[in-house]
Amino acid sequence: MQKNRSQISRVNNAQGKNFENQIMSACLGYLYEGRACIDKIPEPFGVSKKDQQTGMFKGRFFGNKKAQPDFQGTLKGGKSIIFEAKTTTKDKISLKVLSSHQEALLEKHYQLGAITAVCVGINNDFYFVPYALWRLCKEQWDRQYFTKEDLKEYKVRFNGAVNFLDFVNGNNVEFMKEFVKG
């Protein structure tokens, strides 16, 4: 039996929400440690109708076109950080998963010296990919995706939380030059 598009969409949405929750768990840990204060940016939402008597309302999400990158905050010492979160069950992550608006905002923050990245989940492995590498792939390589092998240097620790500031190789985002404009 083949899944219809709405079933696939629900599964993908649930997977994305789970991934974001795993990232938010790391954000809480970093806040507790005094290492960072990073917040999930709410999805664009608008109220279309409100009942004045009950306070109930109807609304809708505006979709990807106006979406901001998913997370933004500050690391200890004052450095800004902004990143998008994307996950897939496929064996590679397409560069097309970012909207043009998200790319433009990451680019602006990158140009201003913020730590910018895409937090990626590929089949239960997690990576924190510098936006500088993401844009290089798009501009100079002959393909529009990354594989796990391409990203192995940026694989992050996972303990139920996606610890995006801590790489399995022992490096930490705060001390890596490839995350900020040089």
Automatic annotation (TrEMBL):
InterPro entries: Resolv_RecU, Restrct_endonuc-II-like, tRNA_endonuc-like_dom_sf. It is found in: Cytoplasm. Its main location: cytoplasm. One of its GO terms (biological process) is DNA recombination. It comes from the Bacteria. One of its GO terms (molecular function) is metal ion binding. GO terms for cellular component: cytoplasm. Its cofactor is Mg(2+). This is Holliday junction resolvase RecU. It comes from Megamonas funiformis.
